[in-house]
Amino acid sequence: MPRRSAKQLALKRLDGLIAILAKQVHVLHLLGVDNSQQFDVLYKCQFLRKKVESNRYFVRGEYNRNRTPKFHIYLTDEGSKDNALTESAFLCHFRIPRSAFWELVHLLKDHGVFHRASSGKGPKPKPASHQLLVLLKYFGSEGDGASNPNLARFFGVGAGTIHDCRTNALEALLSLLEKETHYWPTPEERKSIANRIEMKWHVPNCVGLIDGTVLPLAARPLLHGSFFY
Question: Looking at the domain assignment, is residue 33 inside a domain?
């Protein structure tokens, strides 16, 4: 079942409260009892519901309209400006040399995903270099450092922009380079790999292994349990 937003939950609770109050007002009216107090509460709840429904967000997250995008700082060549990243700092943040980054931008910049017309009155799509930079920073971050809010603070943009940039850059990267850089072994290669693994590890019909220590296990293994759980 899809998770309901805070706004949807608030509207549902208000609808329930309004229904109860409307019934109370009606019953009191039939009994000839003063219902002005209940009617006032009902009116306020109805007004509050309209207010909640008209707002895009029920709870507004961290947001700063005065934030300044920092892409130009990270993309400026070392020596051009005092606050530009050094080559080692660029490599630390984005995991590839600056020269390799620009070669990658040259390969991806003409992909259609970077030139999609924005719907409505939204901003124009960011350049391919900006979107690729977001994806590389995401790849190079660990844990909570790769979350949209943290990356948004790092780049000085909104969390939604981070999501769009990462998605677009990944789509372009996979569609253009996946077949050239990452591919499934041919039938002959698979047989060779499987034979090699079976001879060394006694596991038949296997074409690849990963370290099991990085996978969460439901229970401690009987053999060498302390290594894996």
Answer: yes
